[in-house]
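Sequence design from tokenized structure. All designs in this work follow the same two-part layout: the structure record, then the generated sequence. An example of the structure record is given first.
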């Protein structure tokens, strides 16, 4: 009888200890996700812009185009809120908008578009061949359909070692993005 009581107490204590330790560990796994890396495209001043040479501690990358009627402005509006919620920590975060419509989006047009939402953002683009290399590197996608461009809507959280650590869905709120960014700051 005493053995059963001791065993029961042991299991109950073990259960509560396991729950306690589990709640202390982060619920989000931030191991590299296996896509992404360094790239070079045309950036501000129409100069070559290489991620590894311009990287901040956290880089949030999105593929889109300036004439996008829905996902791009909504995502950049969300980045604006992320920027505000981060407060002074936003100095360690860079928002990178990669245009998949280099035929229409000039570098100057991109800078104006991105800075309307996030002053610490940068717009980059390049030839179709150069953009396609980056799209493939990040396992993104796009397809031009007349005036519109269908494109993937993930945001890629990339650290200063060029490792993609998290993929945000378009539906993820700004608060979730901030929460995960803060885990890496």
């Amino acid at each position: 009888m005493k053995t059963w009581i001791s065993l029961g107490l042991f299991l109950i204590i073990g259960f509560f200890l396991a729950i306690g330790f589990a709640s202390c560990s982060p619920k989000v796994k931030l191991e590299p996700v296996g896509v992404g890396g360094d790239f070079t495209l045309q950036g501000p001043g129409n100069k070559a812009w290489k991620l590894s040479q311009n990287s901040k501690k956290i880089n949030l990358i999105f593929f889109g185009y300036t004439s996008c009627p829905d996902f791009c402005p909504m995502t950049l509006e969300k980045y604006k809120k992320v920027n505000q919620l981060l407060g002074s920590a936003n100095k360690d975060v860079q928002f990178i908008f990669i245009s998949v419509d280099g035929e229409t989006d000039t570098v100057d047009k991109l800078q104006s578009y991105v800075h309307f939402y996030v002053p610490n953002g940068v717009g980059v683009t390049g030839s179709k061949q150069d953009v396609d290399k980056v799209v493939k590197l990040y396992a993104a996608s796009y397809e031009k359909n007349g005036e519109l461009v269908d494109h993937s809507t993930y945001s890629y959280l990339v650290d200063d070692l060029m490792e993609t650590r998290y993929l945000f869905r378009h539906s993820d709120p700004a608060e979730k993005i901030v929460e995960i960014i803060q885990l890496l700051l």
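The domain at 40-184 is CATH 3.40.30.10 (Glutaredoxin). We note this feature because it recurs in several other targets discussed in the main text.
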